Automatic annotation (TrEMBL):
Pfam families according to UniProt: IL8 (PF00048)
Cross-referenced PANTHER family: PLATELET BASIC PROTEIN (PTHR12015:SF198), SMALL INDUCIBLE CYTOKINE A (PTHR12015)
Keyword Oxidoreductase appears in the UniProt entry: no
Protein name, entry field: C-X-C motif chemokine 13-like
Cellular component terms per the entry's GO annotation: extracellular space
Gene Ontology molecular functions: chemoattractant activity; chemokine activity
Functional summary from the UniProt entry: Ligand for cxcr3.2. Chemotactic for macrophages.
Organism: Salvelinus namaycush (Lake trout)
An individual GO BP term: defense response
Keywords: Cytokine, Secreted, Signal
Gene name linked to the record: LOC120037603
Family note: Belongs to the intercrine alpha (chemokine CxC) family.
Signal peptide, first to last residue: 1-22
Location in or out of the cell: Secreted
Amino acid sequence: MPFKPHYLLVSLTLCWFVALQAFPMNSCAACQKCRCIRTSSAFISPRLFHRIEILPPGAHCRQTEIIVTKKDKATVCVTPDARWINKVIAKLQRTNKKKRSAELPISTTIE
């Protein structure tokens, strides 16, 4: 039975499509790495915070990353083991919990 070149082309195309489906379309080399190269445990006043990002460990990075963006647009990677950042995060979570419970409407049923 002779080998047909178009069978090879079809099988290679099929393998190519399968390989494309295995990778997310929005991936890039920089997105698949840890964003924090160096971390700091030095205290930063929460008044200077513009945003705080907590990235859990995953396929992109093996450790938890805490990225603080300050109001002057500077970003600082904070060591997740720093005691002060854990206190700040806990306080933010309590504040958000209080805001959410205050925003819930009181439902009344009228029969």
